[in-house]
Write a structure and sequence with these properties.
Heterokaryon incompatibility protein-domain-containing protein, globular, two-stranded antiparallel ribbon, single chain, five-stranded mixed sheet, 154 residues, HET
Length: 154
């Protein structure tokens, strides 16, 4: 994966411009919230409000499945901003975080964590931005073979 990304970074000019014409991938406008994962397995993972910062992030596209999964709600938003332990996260999220760290990207956007799920206004605002969130992402990790978020990437 790292070799493919290096080739894309150095030779694929078209990959660096989104459909909107904006430069995407590295040092782009960040979504409202991202999960900070750092660059090492020991980094403290926490939900971060970006407040218009620029940077690099990945996105995870996954199947929720029929069972409840870890979500950010109004009740746990403050806790998630303090830290989100890997032991609380399903396998697909865990794998995506490890992949994000492996490629040297400090943030990941996961819908169930980065959108306040029980806040209709936040959900509507973030849903309107979802196309841009995926477009600006350095890499979208697609967990397409699993039946739910517990399946993992591999």
């Amino acid at each position: 994966i790292q070799r493919w990304l290096a080739e894309c970074d150095s030779t694929h000019q078209r990959c660096k411009t989104g459909l909107s014409g904006e430069l995407v991938g590295r040092e782009t406008t960040l979504p409202t919230r991202l999960l900070f994962v750092g660059l090492s397995p020991d980094s403290k993972r926490k939900l971060t409000v970006t407040e218009g910062l620029r940077g690099t992030y990945t996105t995870l596209s996954h199947r929720w499945g029929s069972k409840a999964l870890v979500q950010t709600t109004r009740a746990n938003l403050s806790n998630h901003q303090q830290g989100v332990g890997l032991e609380k996260l399903p396998k697909t999220f865990e794998d995506a975080i490890k992949l994000t760290q492996m490629i040297g990207v400090p943030y990941i956007w996961i819908d169930s964590l980065c959108i306040i799920q029980d806040d209709p206004q936040d959900w509507a605002n973030e849903a309107r931005q979802m196309g841009a969130i995926y477009e600006r992402s350095y890499l979208t990790i697609a967990a397409s073979s699993g039946v739910d978020s517990k399946s993992g990437l591999y």
